[in-house]
Design goal:
8 domains, alpha+beta, single chain, six-stranded antiparallel β-sheet
Length: 1104
């Protein structure tokens, strides 16, 4: 047995860094000889002998080692495990994740990793290998070639030469070990070069300032002098190894050599280098460009090739391979044609030196490398790349020179057509406005120019030239008393929170050094005078010691609070807060599989939920066990888990057994699957009617609703896990089950038959609405799958019906609260005036937080009247940039259910879900900002003698859509002082006048009138008088009442004349309303804030 293991040396696992902890434990287990037992490769002996006893003792030792290295939270996770192997399996299943999400995150971290400037090469390689190991731990394959590619591709720019050199290394030597050693050596060499340059810079500065330093030497403190002497000594050591190539002596470089040859020119001489390029006699070099690795600049000897040329400093030379200096006459640009994949393209070689005595044209590899281009040489071919884009090509000739695939253009050819970009001519003409340059070329004021690029590019010189610096006056008087002036500086957010749960520090400065305690949240609102300097973390960049762009922001005189803490008016800890304040303290992890549920910390609760579901299935005789045969088609089953938060905030664990209906075949095990669902318009009309008639409303929820449906097809299903059903048996379903394609239809048929048996009449306008006339009252019920509302003016009749409903189905009855996405507030004030308000405050609050708009400033309207959206000219938007479609869908749900005030704005942004840009996303954010300021708004229904009948408004906006030039239709109908149904949509065809557009909108509203009247008749509220539809267009009114203006309306589609028929039948009546009272105006166009608020108030929008 190995030596005693020090358990204190093992770090405890707290739920993070599991891979590192697992590696540590494996090492410890191997040291104790227990590795095979823990990982299940050494099984427990079957015979009860000394070997089995030793195995049990070793397993207990392994369990002790594992549990000793776990904190308390992890021990509770594995306290039911009976062996060390079960412990490690339990931990692996919880923390060694191999899900698709984990793989995606690991891949993203690996591919997005970049080397930091502060990291060494060794640290960089270790980081890449660690990321690769994490990929391997979750089952992903990462080869050494991929790791080496990642290491090399993420190196800084200073390793560019190394990257190119590594490509020339043979494949058998391109190993991770070789790469590591060579990179470490390269880093050391680069570090030495940097030290040399630093040493010479210091030395040069010292020589220039020797005199001044001598004069101040005696005034310097000894500590500073010793520090300086130490730095100089270190630099002297570096200088001893340096040799000057000018004079051959050590201790300096040629740049500072005293023996450097002097020239007569007063200008600084420029010296370029070039290696010899040899060619046999008779080779024509006029049209040949050679790629030269030794040339420090592009060079040519043919003056006629230059399209422009400028003078160079006198004495500028080129030193070729035999130490011969050739004079440089000038420098300019040469236009050439380059061959790329068989096609010739015009290009320009810039900053080419004119060297008449060179007798050849050289293309410099060094210049190409400095531009960030890479040169790939393979066989007899060389390619110059900028990223993945091919810039130029060359081929290896018989003289072992890479000849560029260029052909020259003489200056006469080049001058025939002057082709330049708009930016170039903007610069040449003295930074004239881009539009004026374009107009001068177009009008012929400037001739002979063809613009190769017509795009306007931001001109940096123009920006600098038009800027001016504000005067920053210095403050002469400094306050002496505490509180006269306060400077604040906020540091944070900090990753590590304090003991008080805070992650920011506020610094208070001025006449005194005050600091807000780190565990207190600063109450900035209590400061009357604030002088702050907003700053951004610039990743270590230094600020100017005397910044000129910082000024004190001074407001009117006022009182400054000395202590920046919140002072509560009373101790609210004594108040009993509602349960929702603590709802988020305990988050329940919802398992995805049965195994996960049984192995989790809430396994007892999930077991209880499964037992309840199986009991319900048994009570309903959901299946019958039969013997499995080979000819049977058997579908699978699956447990689906969820947690519902009750009003007491005690989570309710629910387990639902679902059939895997995706494997069903039409015509074999299902036929019809349609099942009706109610409309939100129906719910709103019923709530408005309940206020009008003072109905009592109750809400009910049918538990395991789908289990009540009777199946007409023969379906066999695998037994569910934990059902204790013997092998060889399957479940023959007798009732519908969640997951079956026909389950919803079966449940709806069952409930419908029950309602008919109870004497209810099914509605025609909405098949999910039922009505029953009793002796004293009427009972109305509306069903949405398994949730419903039931109402009546007679409570006795209402509860009598609910008793019958309970006998047939297992239901939960409650006061109306949260129903199919809307929150219902039913209350009566002291004057016995009842109101029902529907809203979606919780949903909107979650939506705002989901799209990170909780800190945005609210706005007054959801749509900007000054912005009209249209398709972007260029489709440059990626869905990854912002969640546009998801946001539109979320907003549309709110607009349809309880928020008619955002209906138009949401409809407008929904047109561009597949083609949008930043302008459209800003429109989405504006709606969210509006909702942030009106989170608690909803529709209020209250009894009002003027609104006991349905009243409608219709309107249109002519040519609203800038892309299709179609008009916008909108309508709204009100009952009990609140909107019950509304619409905002683009018309189906282009209209030719405002009258026609209003006529089409009124026709669409008439179809809604027909449905509303039928629905009211179904619930026992028949409408005898025509429904009034109000419009603000006299021409459309005349067109509805009389077939006038034949020449201008004969093209109108016949379907829109439906309104005339309903007018003649007495179904509707039309009347004029002034535009400022046209409530449908908010559904057709963006309106100013004051007018908008007036209209939505008349729609019944109130704060809950």
């Amino acid at each position: 047995m190995a030596e005693r293991l020090d358990m204190n040396s093992l770090s405890k696992f707290d739920g993070s860094n599991y891979n590192q902890w697992r590696f540590q434990m494996n090492c410890a287990l191997r040291a104790k000889g227990l590795y095979k037992i823990v990982h299940g490769t050494e099984l427990k002996p079957e015979n009860n002998n000394e070997t089995q006893k030793a195995w049990i003792k070793n397993d207990a030792t392994a369990m002790f080692i594992l549990t000793s290295a776990l904190d308390y939270a992890q021990i509770t996770l594995i306290e039911n495990c009976e062996s060390s192997h079960q412990i490690i399996d339990k931990l692996d299943s919880n923390y060694l994740q191999r899900s698709e999400l984990s793989k995606m995150i690991a891949h993203e971290r690996f591919h997005q990793y970049r080397m930091k400037d502060s990291d060494s090469v060794a640290q960089h390689i270790a980081n890449v290998e660690n990321l690769a190991k994490k990929l391997k731990d979750i089952g992903e394959t990462v080869s050494d070639a991929v790791i080496m590619t990642k290491i090399i591709s993420t190196l800084p720019q200073k390793f560019l030469n190394f990257r190119q050199a590594w490509l020339s290394v043979s494949d058998d030597r391109q190993t991770l070990t070789n790469l590591t050693s060579r990179l470490v050596d390269e880093e050391a060499n680069l570090s030495l070069v940097e030290q040399m340059e630093t040493a010479f810079t210091i030395s040069s500065g010292k020589n220039r300032s020797t005199k001044s330093k001598r004069s101040t030497k005696q005034r310097e403190p000894s500590s500073r002098g010793s520090s300086k002497q130490k730095s100089v000594d270190q630099n002297q050591e570096v200088k001893q190894d340096i040799k000057c190539y000018q004079c051959g002596k050590r201790g300096h470089i040629a740049r500072f050599c005293r023996n450097k040859p002097k020239h007569k020119s007063s200008h600084r001489d420029m010296e370029y280098t070039s290696f010899n390029v040899e060619f046999p006699e008779g080779v024509n070099m006029e049209n040949t460009w050679i790629m030269n690795s030794g040339a420090s600049a592009h060079m040519s000897y043919r003056a006629e090739l230059f399209s422009n040329m400028s003078a160079v400093s006198e004495g500028t030379t080129v030193v070729i391979g035999n130490n011969v200096s050739l004079p440089v006459i000038g420098k300019g640009d040469i236009e050439i044609e380059k061959n790329i994949k068989g096609e010739w393209y015009k290009s320009v070689i810039t900053n080419v030196l004119f060297v008449p005595d060179l007798r050849r044209n050289l293309f410099s590899e060094a210049v190409a490398t400095k531009k960030g281009w890479s040169i790939m040489k393979e066989g007899k071919k060389a390619e110059i790349l900028h990223g993945s884009k091919l810039i130029a090509s060359a081929i290896l000739d018989d003289n072992n020179n890479y000849r560029m695939l260029f052909r020259n253009i003489s200056v006469h050819q080049a001058q025939q057509v002057t082709e330049n970009s708009l930016k170039a001519w903007h610069d040449r003409l003295g930074h004239v406005n881009f539009t004026q340059v374009r107009e001068m070329i177009k009008s012929g004021v400037i001739s002979g120019i063809t613009l190769s690029d017509d795009d306007e590019i931001l001109c940096e010189s123009c920006l600098y030239g038009k800027q001016h610096r504000f005067h920053h006056a210095s403050r002469e008087v400094r306050e002496e008393e505490v509180g006269e002036r306060v400077f604040t500086d906020v540091c944070g957010p900090i990753a590590t929170e304090s003991s008080g749960g805070r992650n920011q520090i506020v610094d208070l400065g001025g006449a005194s050094k005050l600091a807000a305690p780190e565990a207190q949240r600063p109450a900035i609102r209590n400061l009357a005078v604030k002088e702050t300097e907003p700053r951004q973390d610039l990743d270590g960049e230094q600020f100017d010691a005397n910044p000129r762009n910082v000024e004190a922001l001074q407001e009117d005189e006022g009182t400054v609070v000395d202590n920046a803490r919140d002072h509560n008016l009373r101790n609210r800890d004594k108040l009993k807060r509602p349960g929702r304040y603590t709802a988020n303290f305990a988050m329940v992890n919802v398992p995805l599989t049965y195994k996960e549920a049984m192995e989790g910390s809430e396994s007892r609760e999930w077991s209880k939920a499964i037992a309840e579901e199986l009991s319900a299935l048994k009570r309903n005789d959901t299946w019958q066990l039969v013997k499995r045969t080979d000819s049977m088609k058997v579908i699978g089953s699956k447990w689906v888990f969820s947690v519902k938060d009750q009003t007491s905030n005690k989570p309710r664990f629910k387990a639902r057994l679902c059939a895997k209906g995706f494997s069903q075949e039409k015509g074999v095990d299902y036929d019809e699957i349609f099942s009706p669902t109610t409309r939100y318009e129906s719910i709103r009309i019923l709530l408005a009617t309940a206020v009008k008639n003072n109905y009592k409303i109750l809400q009910f929820d049918v538990r395991t609703a789908f289990l009540y449906g009777d199946l007409h097809e023969t379906i066999h299903m695998d037994p569910p896990e934990s059902a204790n059903i013997s092998d060889g048996q399957v479940c023959r379903l007798q009732k519908s089950l969640y997951g079956l394609k026909q389950a919803s239809r079966c449940w709806n048929e069952k409930f419908n038959q029950f309602m008919l048996d109870q004497g209810f009449r099914r509605g025609e306008a909405d098949k999910c609405v039922y009505r029953k006339n009793c002796s004293k009252s009427t009972i109305i019920l509306i069903l949405y799958v398994d949730d419903g509302l039931v109402m009546s003016s007679d409570e006795a009749s209402l509860y009598s019906f609910l008793d019958e409903l309970v006998k047939q189905f297992e239901i939960t009855v409650m006061e109306p609260g949260y129903f199919v996405g809307m929150e219902i507030l039913d209350e009566t004030n002291e004057d016995n005036n009842r109101r029902i308000l529907i809203h979606q405050s919780s949903y909107i609050r979650r939506m705002i937080e989901k799209f990170h708009m909780q800190d945005a400033a609210p706005v007054g309207t959801p749509a900007d009247p000054h912005v009209r959206l249209k398709k972007p000219e260029y489709d440059d938007h990626s869905e990854d940039s912002y969640p546009y479609r998801e946001a539109v869908g979320s907003l549309m749900f709110a607009a349809i259910v309880t928020r008619p005030d955002i209906m138009f704005a949401t409809n407008q942004i929904s047109r561009y879900t597949s083609n949008n840009d930043q302008t459209h996303w800003n429109a989405v954010k504006r709606i969210l900002k509006y909702l942030k300021g009106t989170i608690n708004f909803g529709i209020e229904y209250r009894r009002n003698s003027e609104m006991l009948v349905v009243t409608g408004y219709s309107d249109s906006d002519f040519g609203n859509d800038l892309d299709t030039r179609r008009s916008m239709s909108g309508y709204v109908f009100l009952l009990s002082n609140g909107a019950v149904t509304w619409s905002s949509q683009t018309q189906k065809a282009v209209t030719l006048s405002t009258t026609e557009a209003e006529y089409v909108a009124a026709s669409e509203a008439t179809k809604e009138v027909t449905w509303i009247r039928q629905f009211l008749d179904d619930i026992g509220e028949p409408v005898q008088e025509p429904t009034n539809l109000k419009m603000d267009n006299q021409g459309a009114l005349c067109l509805v009442k009389n077939p006038v203006f034949h020449k201008r309306t004969k093209h109108v589609d016949i379907k829109y004349h439906y309104i005339r028929e309903k007018l003649e039948e007495g179904t509707i009546s039309v009347s004029f309303v002034p535009s400022d009272l046209e409530l449908a105006d908010v559904f057709t166009k963006p309106t100013p804030r004051d007018h908008f608020h007036k209209l939505i108030f008349n729609l019944g929008m109130r704060k809950c």
